[in-house]
Amino acid sequence: MATWLITGCSTGLGHALAVAATTAGHNVVATARDVTTIADLVDMAPDRVLAVALDVTRPEQVTDAVNDAGQRFGGVDVLVNNAGYGYRAAVEEGDDTDVRTLFETHFFGTVATIKAVLPGMRARRSGAIVNISSIGAQLTPVGSGYYSAVKSAIEGLSGSLRGELAPLGISVTIVEPGAFRTDFAGRSLTQSSTPIDDYAETAGKRRKEHDTVHGTQAGDPAKAAAAIIAATEAPEPPGFLLLGSDALAGYRRVTEARNAEVTEWESLSVGTDYTA
Q: Are the CB atoms for 1 and 25 separated by under 8 Å?
């Protein structure tokens, strides 16, 4: 039995993961900004599920959540940074305040929870950190520049963190889901308030009012949750995990195109070295 602390459990993947971890017999610290939205999780196993109010942009709440986990279960064995939301805007359209809030939630919120659990994990020389990213970090779709950027920032941080923590017995896994049938494209999707007409045929087509995929995504959140648990419990957890056939296909498509372009421009790349 391990203790999982999962952020953003009110809906979607976070809720599915909390259900799966509880069903698997683990202790779960389920968090949400409004704990009334996760009462059903506590009802599943009141002795093993602790509901905690957590807004990851508030450092004092991050500290309290980790302390509560320690007092109730003895510490956090697995941290899953899942809290977040979508934001769509052409880069020029992005509101500065909205963008900063996006980074405060996704990136700096992730940093805060990681720093909060690491002293305990280091002391025990064990633990796992799972950071939920997105295939958007690879695909960089038009209209999702800021969301792709914040997920890329998390991936860069995670790569370095993995090397720092591996000698201490702590794993770090980046998870890149594709499209799953959650509220991500519905309630959890925000966008710029003022569209610019010149982007109507690019970023404009992906605005919320034009979205037709919500509720029809191929990905099953319950299966994604099971996959994350399986990966985390593996003898050697992966550093990078794609979830969904669309994510796998998209990743391979981007990788192949990038490799082709690198080859095409190889001579120009190596031509910048000093010559004897």
A: yes
Q: Which residue has the tokens 């950027």?
A: 149
Q: What is the DSSP string of 170-220?
A: EEEEEEEE--BSSSTTTTTEEE-SS--GGGTTTGGGGSGGG---TTT-SB-
Alpha-carbon 269 to chain mean position: 33
For residue 100, give both structure tokens: 């900063």
CB 132 within 8 A of CB 86: no
**Residues 2-42: pLDDT tens digits?**
999 999 999 999 999 999 999 999 999 999 999 999 999 99
Q: Taking Cα atoms as reference points, which of 138, 66, 262 lies closest to residue 270?
A: 262
151: part of which helix (H) or strand (E)? helix 145-165
Are 17 and 225 in contact by the 8 Å Cβ rule? The answer is yes
DSSP-derived secondary structure letter, 106 = I
- Domains annotated on the chain, with CATH: 3-248 (3.40.50.720)
Collapsed DSSP state (helix, strand, coil) of residue 80: strand
Largest Cα–Cα distance of the chain, in whole Å? 72
pTM above 0.85, yes or no: yes
| Nearest-5° Cα angle at 247, 243 to 253 | 145
Active site residues: 133, 147, 151
Coil, helix or strand for 43?
helix
Sheet holding 240-243, edge to edge: 49-53, 27-32, 3-6, 78-81, 127-132, 170-177, 240-243
